[in-house]
Amino acid sequence: MSYHPEKQVLKCYATGEIDSAHGAAVATHLETCSHCRQLVAKYEEEAAEDLVASGTEGAISDSELALVFDNMMNDIMTLDADFSKPKARTATTVEVNGKSFKVPATLKPFVDRMGEWKSYGGKVFTSNIEIDEDCRVSLLYITEGVQVPQHTHKGFESTLVLHGSFSDENGEYHEGDFIREDGDTKHAPQTASGQDCLCLSILTEPMIFTQGVARVFNRFGKGMYP
Fold first, then answer.
1. Domain ChrR-like cupin spans what residues (predicted)?
2. What is the pLDDT of residues 137-167, one digit of tens each?
């Protein structure tokens, strides 16, 4: 794994200031990336220290804290549940173009909200995920030996590779890699012969095509979502 979320993105995740789409993408990346897990743990510890150091004005008293703890323990003891074993998280599956792919359990809520797959020439497939966010979230499947038209971005594009690999002018990306692009990037993602790719895509603004006939989608400055 060669590509990771930026430190600021990991800090937002650690402090709970991240949106749900990027939060799920980062959580999925963390499952297989010990480097980023260590950074998140560090940022969580720093956030806790900052909270303690921020002062005692308006802080809960020791007696109030003890009462909250007692009430919490009473609630736990009265629950009709077995806490002897942690609940196992299981992966889910998606099917596209006659193939079935395992998707990490962290993304199951997204899979439950998937729309119908749309096909672009039988080579690129997208399924929009309906969530209450100011961004476009989708699963993107690119068949083998395909190049997406070169484009840039009005906002940010975050991509998490779930299966296979793809490459562009800036590198080659494999399962677990997290890539974030903006308007400074012009790229034409492509899959190699014999290698397809399934990704989670998060776009804050439409794509802007920069070459070829695809530029027709840029009319009126709207760009295009996949």
1. 137-200
2. 999 999 999 998 888 888 889 999 999 999 9
Decide if 144 contacts 127 (C-beta within 8 A).
Answer: no
**pLDDT for the residue numbered 220:** 46
Q: What would the two tokens of residue 208 be? A: 């802007």
Contact yes or no for 173/203 (Cβ under 8 A): no
Q: What are phi and psi of 6, to 5 degrees?
A: -60, 155
CATH code, 92-221: 2.60.120.10
Q: Which residues have CB under 8 Å from 93's CB, separation 6+?
A: 100, 101, 102, 103
| Bridge-based pairing state of the strands 171-174 and 157-168 | antiparallel
By three-state DSSP, how is residue 86 classified?
coil
Rounded to two decimals, the pTM is 0.79
Query: DSSP letters along 142-173, please?
Result: E-TT-BPPPEEESS-EEEEEEEEEEEETTEEE
Q: In the CATH hierarchy, which top-level class contains the domain 7-78?
A: mainly alpha
Task: Kindly report, residue by residue over 193-224, the tens digit of the pLDDT.
Answer: 999 999 999 998 887 877 654 444 545 445 44
Each domain of the chain, given as residue ranges in start order, spans 7-78, 92-221
Q: Assess contact for 96 and 117: CB atoms under 8 A.
A: yes
Contact present, 162 and 101 (Cβ < 8 Å): yes
Q: Are 192 and 145 in contact (CB under 8 A)?
A: yes
Extract the residue ranges of the chain whose pLDDT is less than 70.
Answer: 55-89, 211-226
